[in-house]
Amino acid sequence: MVDVGAFIGQIFIVILLIVIAIFVIVVIFRSIRIIPQAYAGVVERLGRYQRTLQPGLNLLVPFIDRLRPLVDMREQVVSFPPQPVITEDNLVVSIDTVVYFQVTDARAATYEIANYLSAVEQLTTTTLRNVVGGLNLEEALTSRDNINGQLRVVLDEATGKWGLRVSRVELKAIDPPHSIQDSMEKQMRAERDRRAAILTAEGSKQSQILEAEGRRQAEILKAEGDKQAAVLRAQGEAEAIEMVFNAIHNGDPDEKLLAYQYLQTLPKISESPSSKLWIIPSELTEALKGIGDAFGGRAGASGPRPTTPRPTSTSSPTAAAAVAAAQEAAKAADSIASEAMATTPNGGAATPPAE
């Protein structure tokens, strides 16, 4: 027969061993703590702060030491919801803030403040209202750096005893009321229109100045060109006159040749369509008389001399009659000159009439 007492004793021993093994495992588990990097652990011994655990493997006294929740030692970024703030000119604006802070002392962050995130939020709100309350809307919109600096200084001083360090405070958005936004947009639009009108006027002014300067330079250059052309033209005419004058004096023309040229020029005077009245000068009869006297003897040797009609002296004959008389005289002079040249021994060397 099986001994019941021995069997019960064996079962008891097995259960005891199992309990002891479980106890040992629990003790080992509660004694060993592994702290990850960038975290810190606060250890309390019998309810009192004992030490701060650093990252890595740490040993605790089981059932005596207690590890509080780990504290994140990295820099944290917290964005707070929009807060209504009243400016100096009694306008309500909504401001979003972003705070960058870091826990530098895990013990102070655990025991000096119950909830440091909520404390930082409330402190940021009150400080923001104090700072922005002393500024008008335009200053608040254009002085973000100044506001950020004041907030950071106040928060850093207040949170130093909590084991926190505030590195930066940024205003994410400043939203004025919709009516103010519409007014600001109209003002900005008017300012842009004013600047555009000023720029357009300045451009038009510069354009007109440049155009006037260009016209002035063109007129100056044109006047210089006309001056040079007039000078060159006058020099050319002077040289031509001088050449003609020298040629006339070198050729030594006599009165007969001059009278002949005078008769050749008279018909050209009447070619102008504006000639309504032509006065026959008294020199015409003298020229005809000189030619007749010069070549009369030579023409009688070759044949009968054509009778040259002597125009009657009138005070104002018609232009047609004058032209006809001049043409008749010119023809008579041409015939007399031809006959004279034919009878002259060196007729080929006679000086040709000037055109």
Per-chain topology:
Layout: H1 4-31, E1 32-35, E2 39-45, E3 48-53, E4 56-59, E5 65-67, E6 71-72, E7 75-86, E8 92-103, H2 106-111, H3 116-132, H4 137-142, H5 144-159, E9 164-175, H6 178-251, H7 255-269, H8 283-302, H9 319-343
Antiparallel strand pairs: 1-4, 2-3, 2-5, 2-6, 7-8, 8-9
- How many separate structural domains? 3
Number of strands: 9
CATH topology of the largest domain: Tetrahydropterin Synthase, Chain A
Structural class: alpha+beta
Contiguous low-pLDDT stretches (5 residues minimum) are 297-317, 344-355
The chain-level mean pLDDT equals 78
What global shape is seen?
Answer: rod-shaped
- CATH homology superfamily of the largest domain: Band 7 domain
What is the distance, rounded to the nearest whole angstrom, between the alpha carbons of the first and last residues? 179 Å
How large, in whole angstroms, is the Cα Rg?
A: 64 Å
Strand content: 15-25%
**Approximately how much helix is present in the residues?**
55-70%
Could you describe the largest sheet, including whether it forms a barrel? 4 strands, antiparallel
> H/E series, N to C?
HEEEEEEEEHHHHEHHHH
- Under the CATH scheme, the architecture of the largest domain is 2-Layer Sandwich
In the CATH scheme, the class of the largest domain would be Alpha Beta
Helix segment count? 9
Membrane topology: Single-pass membrane protein
GO biological process, one term: proteolysis
Organism: Microbacterium terrae
Biased composition (Low complexity): 301-343
